[in-house]
Write the structure tokens for this entry.
Amino acid sequence: MNEQTEARDVILALRSYSERIDEIMTAIADRRSITSQEKDELQSKLVMLKADIKAAAKRKKVRDNRDPQTSTERAYFEPALRGASANFRVATNSHPITSRWHSCLYDVNIDFSYFLHQLEKQYPDVQ
């Protein structure tokens, strides 16, 4: 795998996490209340997101395979996931509005955004 492909894989993975976080943040932004069904859906999304971040942080790679970790994963993906995992402090069974979901997700997304920006700056032609 060449550097461009490695960078593209990491960029796409980090973008995917960031987009999932943005989706949840948008759903709760400026809301004072939500329905029980909305709460359940958001909690389900948060559970899946948190589990995916924890699993990726543990394996330290984009893909769950036997291939060795690439230098791009080591430099960008691993630290982004490690930071996001450490900052993911909100309980998945808490209420999206009355708990600090928005603040927590913002902090988690900062971890992804920082490394994503650095990687995109280094590989501007990779999309």
Remarks:
- The first helix runs from residue 3 to 28.
